Amino acid sequence: MDIVVVGGINIDISGTSDFKMILGDSNPGQVWASLGGVGRNIAENLSRLNCSCRMITALGKDMHLPMIRESCQKLHIDLSCSPVIPGARNGIYLCVNDEAGDVVAAISDMKICEAVTPQLLEKHLQVLNGADFVVVDANVPEASLYFLAEHCHTRIVADTVSSKKAGRLAACLDRLWVIKPNRAEAELLTGVPLHDTLSLQRASRVFLEKGTKHVFISLGSQGVYYADAEDSGIQPCHPAAICNTNGCGDAFLAAASLALAHGHPIQEAAQIGQAASAICAKSEHAVSPELTLQQLEADSGIPL
Hints:
Layout: E1 2-6, E2 10-17, E3 29-36, H1 38-48, E4 52-56, E5 59-60, H2 65-74, E6 77-78, E7 84-85, E8 91-97, E9 103-109, H3 118-123, H4 125-129, E10 133-137, H5 142-151, E11 155-159, H6 163-166, E12 178-180, H7 183-190, H8 197-210, E13 214-218, E14 224-227, E15 232-235, H9 248-261, H10 266-281, H11 293-300
Parallel strand pairs: 1-4, 1-10, 2-8, 4-6, 5-7, 10-11, 11-12, 12-13
Antiparallel strand pairs: 2-3, 8-9, 13-14, 14-15
């Protein structure tokens, strides 16, 4: 499949404590640095699943640029539609994980994404509309998200990114093929407080009534709530030894969207997504080098 990803690329710096976290103090642990960004992570996951991926993003002219270009070239992620902005620096995502690998706190510097303007997207409308589906993350400015909703006629998959940025998608819900918020982001976008299965059903119904076709609400360690016009339910997490949860949501969205594009029902898409998330959780990287189509099919038990 040919997929275009509109979103961010950044440097991920991730630290995981060896023991129970003591806030306000130095904690022994392990620290990794790698390439990341919601958009780039999704593109890498899709590329590892044998998709042809192109990114539309903005790149900073800094010390990290050669590493970004070299990595994307090796992963067959096409950056030809992504301009380099003189004087700008590439994004950085800094996160601290507890001893279980769950994020305690994170800071995301994605100001470079402000250069992903409607004018840039307009230049590449032919590329966007020629894709099997387009993935967009909410690091992109609200005006650009609205431009995509108005002018991109292929299927659109949206990652809400964070509670601070999820609201940018509010005016686009009628054009979304897939959305994947967590609890807080779903509450923000639907106005429904989430505290049990019934409230998850109500929130999903709001998304569906607004026009979104497929909804995945991340429930953390409790799994994911999935819903569309045909089915709804909770898909538990796939069993895995957790090293690092950074990037697990990106792996889920990439695999679940690909499964839907191949015609799988939403429950199977959720199962495939959870298997991809578990593969990611076992890795120290935001995208697991162990992710392959064959491994995903073996772990999920479902042929793609």
